[in-house]
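User: Could you go from structure to sequence for me? I need the amino acid at each position, not a summary. Structure tokens:
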């Protein structure tokens, strides 16, 4: 039987609480016997800073690299507001993304029928919604140099971030989006700001050429990022796959998450290239929601985005599509039964705790 090595980085805030629920699901699959998962835990984020003075230790970085996949919770919180920029909690996550070369971030926004009324939008706008945002994750303004604050010497300072994209970075994220679209609705919407940004001009040029050369059978459209934000809340069902840069992808995926009823619902996969020798690709799976320090420790967190991220891991890293389908069906079934954590409950509706939600999903898996 195949054995898969998972590196678990629960992180800060509600991270450990939602990770504990994903671990129940892992234990269930181990007991079932269709595949064997070995887990190792490490520290990333503020918890790593408290332990080692760095947002991830070299030892944990090594463990993450050696694993078949990384499962990540969330990082950050007010406790670390004053720590130096280089070792802030988020730096640990950014280093994992960069050093593992996880350039393709897939963020599906799927509206579960039972939650159509939990969205802030009208039910008919989001019922049946099934879109994926493909966000470039290792380039753009997140990593571009120079990135600094300089003293101008006249009582003024200047903050600088650099938005930069090379042809190959746009092509490889474009390929991920077009390949994915072929397995879905066969449509890609590419988004940038070519009306004000040179990197946007190049982005549009490269996507257009790539489409013509390698993917003429897929429908390609372009939308400016601001207009796309508007269209996402006006009529999101017009989209299938959206491909965009690191910063626009960060913003637009938060918007897309809220369409589905709660940020607590959205999983994500961050993927690198397939290694020609091993046939494996480096990968990290994480919920899109953050560490939510305001509710940490109260049992109010929604573990569905974390458990959904595990489902993506089964599908994309291990080819366990059957298990992934069953896990996603288990999530849909507990929602259909009316079980709700606080974030997805309508006013006056009864709510259950993080761990009760995890137990219910494992219960549904057992059938
Ligand atoms: C995300 C988060 C991160 C990002 C933070 C925690 C660095 O917002 O994954 O969307 O900005 O990429
Ligand atoms: Mg974000």
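Assistant: Here is the amino acid at each position, in order:
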């Amino acid at each position: 039987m195949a054995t898969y090595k998972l590196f678990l980085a629960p992180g800060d805030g509600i991270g450990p609480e939602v990770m504990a629920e994903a671990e129940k699901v892992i234990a269930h699959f181990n007991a079932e016997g269709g595949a064997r998962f070995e887990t190792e835990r490490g520290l990333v984020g503020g918890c790593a800073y408290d332990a080692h003075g760095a947002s991830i230790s070299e030892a944990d970085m090594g463990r993450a690299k050696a694993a078949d996949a990384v499962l990540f919770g969330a990082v950050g919180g007010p406790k670390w507001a004053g720590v130096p920029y280089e070792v802030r909690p988020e730096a640990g996550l950014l280093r994992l993304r960069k050093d593992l070369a996880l350039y393709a971030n897939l963020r599906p926004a799927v509206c579960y029928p039972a939650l159509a009324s939990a969205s802030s939008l009208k039910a008919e706008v989001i019922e049946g919604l099934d879109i994926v945002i493909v966000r470039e994750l290792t380039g753009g303004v997140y990593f571009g140099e120079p990135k600094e604050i300089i003293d101008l010497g006249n009582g003024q300072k200047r903050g600088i971030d650099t938005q930069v994209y090379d042809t190959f970075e746009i092509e490889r994220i474009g390929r991920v989006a077009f390949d994915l679209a072929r397995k879905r609705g066969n449509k890609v919407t590419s988004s940038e700001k070519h009306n004000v940004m040179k990197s946007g001009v190049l982005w549009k040029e490269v996507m257009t050429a790539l489409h013509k050369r390698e993917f003429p059978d897929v429908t390609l459209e372009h939308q400016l990022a601001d207009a796309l934000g508007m269209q996402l809340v006006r009529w999101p069902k017009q989209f299938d796959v959206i491909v965009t840069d690191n910063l626009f992808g960060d913003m637009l995926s938060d918007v897309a998450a809220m369409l589905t009823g709660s940020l607590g619902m959205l999983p994500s996969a961050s993927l690198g290239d397939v290694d020609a020798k091993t046939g494996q690709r480096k990968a990290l799976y994480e919920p899109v929601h953050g560490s939510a320090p305001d509710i940490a420790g109260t049992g109010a967190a929604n573990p569905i985005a974390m458990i959904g991220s595990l489902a993506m891991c089964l599908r994309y890293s291990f080819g366990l599509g059957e298990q992934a389908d069953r896990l996603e069906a288990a999530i849909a079934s507990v929602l259909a039964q009316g079980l709700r954590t606080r974030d997805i409950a309508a006013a006056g509706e009864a709510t259950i705790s993080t761990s009760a939600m995890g137990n219910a999903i494992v219960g549904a898996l057992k059938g």
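One structural detail worth keeping in mind: The pocket of magnesium ion (ligand 2) is lined by residues 250, 254 (CB under 6 Å).
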